[in-house]
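Subject: Sanity check before I submit

Could someone independently write out the structure tokens for this chain? I want to compare against mine line by line before I put it in a report. The sequence has 424 residues.
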Amino acid sequence: MQYLLIAIVFLQVLLLGSCGLDQDINKEKTVSAASTELVLFREGACKNNISMVSEADSELKDQIEQFFWSVTNFSFHYNKAHFPYLSAPGDLEVGTVFSSNPLKPLRLSKSLLLEELKGLQREWFDKIGSKNHETVIGANEISSSVLVKIEDLSDFERLHKKIHALRKKLSRLSALSCSMDQLTSREKFDVRPLFKLREQLEKGFDISDMTLQTPLIDLCSEYNTESLCSLELLMSRRKKSIDHYFENYESKYELRLASFFERRGDKKWSCFKSDEKIVVRIPFIANDLLKNKLHGTYSVLTDFVAEKWSNEKVEILLEEAREGEDALEISWTDGGLSFVKSDEPNRIYLSKHLNFSQLTITFAHELGHVLGFPDCYHEFYDKQQKEIIYYSLDPTGKNLMCTLSHKASIPDSYLDKLIQEVCL
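---
Independent answer below. Compare away.
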């Protein structure tokens, strides 16, 4: 139950809080995606592409929405008599964020969502029974008295939250549907081949074992064609230099991994010393919508940023800019993603759909991009599997640039770089 709630909140913040693709600092030449598997629900996600929504895509969206609200409706009314622990419809508390990893990534595609929907519908029907199902479908008002009591309630809340999570996956997929070129170009930065091979080695396999033939070729295939990799591996076996083969590509992947944690940019900010701390001052231009979302005061946000971006040596001071001062700007987007563009490093684009809790953690994360730190998670389109892949690269789950967990913060190593590189 605990892990289910964690996963749902992860999807919630991933949809509304995570960075969009525009903030990618490495501007790679984009590659057109041949598959249309993920071109879903372009209305609200992509401009001037409303006509590209297919009837089948809209039908899937409608099925998930109808199923979600039927379940939520049932939960709400049944709650009156039997479920005192259930939240109000659609209201799930924000908690710890589930963090995926390269070996267990989040996978998104239309076919996967459809398969999951069918499985949840079968499970739901089995849990509540046919009579309750018929009562709920299409009903606007339901009397608790007409619902048949369910004897086994142990899995009901878990199922309710899994359906909520499915809806969030769909929203994430929709938000990314018009960024397929950028997602496809990011596939070449995938680090899963190294993690998969290391997993086999940790299980006791020897690097020269023939059972590791495929993962060793996969390790090389990120840099060369499969035929060249097969030939190189064959020559390495003949020369008994498999270790050298592995170490060569392992070092390439280590450099790739390191790039997710390297600060970039030359923007300088004003710094001063206070109570033995170096304070980095980040002025921002007042924004009415931001203030309204923060219940009328910026102090909640400035205090939150100070908490996340501080240690015993350094602290970020976020405060309103003085007139004419070069300052951070906040803009708003109708889409589901928040981001910082590489060509506008002093502007944070925030989704209008962020709620209070999501706004503070998302702002603190996006501020990291303003200060030059990249995302340390990877999200791309896998052409072979026809899926969007997402995974975090932080094994601790505590780095705010890798996750949007409220328990995350900025590592000391990042703050040390600020002192060394950003102060005027």
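---
OP: Matches mine. For the report I'm noting this point. Residues 1-6, 23-54, 83-98 have pLDDT under 50 and may be disordered.
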